[in-house]
Amino acid sequence: MKKYVVIAFLLLLGGLMLKEIVQGQEGSRQPAAKLNAAEEKFLAMSGRKAAYPQEKLPVIETANVCELGKLTALTFIHWVQDNPNGVIALPTGKTPELFIEYLKFYKNNWNEDAVQADLQHFGIDSEAFPETKNLKFVQLDEFFPIDTAQHNSFTHYVGKYYLSLLEIPEENVLGMDFCRQGVLDSSDYETVFPQGKFDLALLTRQPVNETEKRQKEILEKVDLFCENFEKQVKEWGGIGFFLGGIGPDGHIAFNMPGSEKDSKTRLVQLNYPTAASAAGDLGGIEHSRDKAAVTIGLKTITQNPNATILIIAAGEAKAPAVKNALERESSLDYPATALHSVNGARFYLTKGAASLLEARRIEDVQGKKWDDFSTNEVDDVVIDLALKKQRRIVDMTEADFNQDPRGEALLASCPLELAAFLDNVRQRLTEKIERGMEVRKGQNVLHTGPHHDDVMLSYHPLMCSMLGTNTNTFCYLTSGFNSVTNSYMVETLNALPESMLHQYQDKVFGQSHEEALKTYLKEVARYHPTEMKRAEEVILLQNIASLYDIKDMTALKDKVRWLKTEYFARRRPGEKDIAEVQTLKGSMRETESERMLMLAGVDLADVYHMRAKFYNGDYFNPLPSIEEDARPLANLYKELQPHLITVAYDPEGTGPDTHYKVLQIVAQALRMTDFDHPVTVWGYRNVWHRFKFSDGNTLYPVSEEEMAAMNHAFLSCFSTQRQASFPSVEHDGPFSELAEKIQREYFDNLQVLLGKKYFQGHPDPRVRNAQGFVFVKEMTAETFMDNAQELKSRIELVN
Length: 799
Known about the structure:
The protein is of the alpha/beta class. The protein has 30 helices and 19 strands. The strands form four sheets. Strands 3-12-11-8-4-5-7 form a seven-stranded parallel β-sheet. Strands 15-14-13-16-17-19-18 form a seven-stranded mixed β-sheet, sandwiched between helices. Strands 6-10-9 form a three-stranded antiparallel β-sheet, covered by helices on one side. Helix 20 crosses helix 23 and helix 24 packs across helix 25 (657-671). The relative contact order is 0.09.
């Protein structure tokens, strides 16, 4: 029988018991719920203490997202064994992916010898996966209004990923299927709630027209639904096992900042950060902005005094929200602080998510010998403290260090004189800037990107500086169709009246694709928005003709009519497209990168679109394969023989999953290729991740003009992304604005760390004129491949 191996860390010895934690706003101490055997093991594996006074709830820190998913699944199994008839509430979205995968793995391979040994190691000794069909399931939340039959509704998610896996019967499910429960007719979604939006104030004010009158009637039904939902949870004895994530703004379920500690199941309006987080579920921010949702309340979660409440978080992006939840006193501004009074509540975190917890940061420094510190660790402490004090590195005093526990511990172990020590840190930083100004010449450079704007949003100024002195090739690994909305396609198609399509015949069939792109760029140069739109319409028509092998205008008219009146007219927001429309949408994304590169002077022949097979539009994309995804890239390596390869670099694997998967493709293709020269890899980050000063080792100065050129290129060429459908939670606007903001923040911080005179008096005009900085991490190919393999072992559950 085929054996399965769970890639995760195992520990042979037992762990520590959690004795007590700080509880409540008054700071009183109460005994915490006893840890299960799996929690004890993982706590010991983490090397952390059982409790820290600054943290108001217990925390178990895991090394990576794979361990996080495994621990959560093991704790769930432990709980179900003790509570086979209990009440559970489990989250939707991307956060619980590995929790679900581990549950599947254990259920399907329970009797395998290796799996049994693993389970017993974590205190689970049973002949079979626990009986789950008698559990009661409480849904956490659901968008409103929504047709719950849609594949992107949370109701659909719950049925697909939880109820079927756990075999929970319908009568044991307290769900939020508004259509089936008589709150909403399927036709109401479009007829009564145009674009799915309404004014939540209708609950307390009088309607002003017939539409609002009908909306108010339905909202009153929602209120009654919420009341009955809350009663049923209470009749069941409350939620016994709650698992949830935490949003960037600190929301739990859809309890956003401002939610009362005693809040119950209710209708809420999403704020921007929550709407941006939910954009992927609803098919874009245009559908989630100002969207409402029904959510269980904080009191709904905490009403059972014996509940096990787990909050899981992965990645540095969640670290600020985690810090607020665990270190702040109870406050409406931080919803998770409502959990402080629950003995069975705790957080499971990756190292990245726990990275701002003060006691752990101090612990990582205290007691270490100087030789045990890496230069990155030293630089982190010094730079953090200098920025906190707003001083130049070399101006830091012994008093500054002694006022900070991390700084005091570091300085106590340092054998150097303070001035020499600080000058070493300063020198390491300036060396990174000098490295960034080294001009590469005569090399073959292969720029890779998961999506078509990743390169430009990361290092567009650096990219442009390399074009004149090297041979540059650009390779985009996915077609990026997920980022092309139906509304963009419909708007563009609707600008093409059938009666006028004949006017496009010569342009569509009489000129090449490259000529059509050049026409677009001519209109960009003239800044003629109307003609830019006309040129883009020609590009779309050419892509339709190419996709369907259309040779004449009659057939093209038929296909345009079908797309407008048949296909897109019937699509729900966020619904997975058929393969041919995925290709069509992706082809428009591909032309955006081509426009941007041609604007910079790149030959179209030097742009490759790989259309990786793993990128298929499923909610959880499959892992890449060697034959379908890595081998085509390896063949390109063999042909181009690059000296330098760039790659979107997410060392935690907690960002967009496409970035992680493309990183693995780039690494696997390297393993499959023989080069007759050394290969260097540049890891870059963009609006989704930021380098710490210690991580980036090549700092490129960016001028005001270069940032303006980046913005111009983005806004001119990336038509589908000017108003991104899946934006960052920290910026409500074009991605290029956020990229510029990040580059300026780097410069501002460098001015503090090095002093303004460093820049004003630098011999190189690029440094004197800098207003921003681009960070990259330069690695040997071997180092990159090792990092990618180590990351893979920490993320993937493989057989």
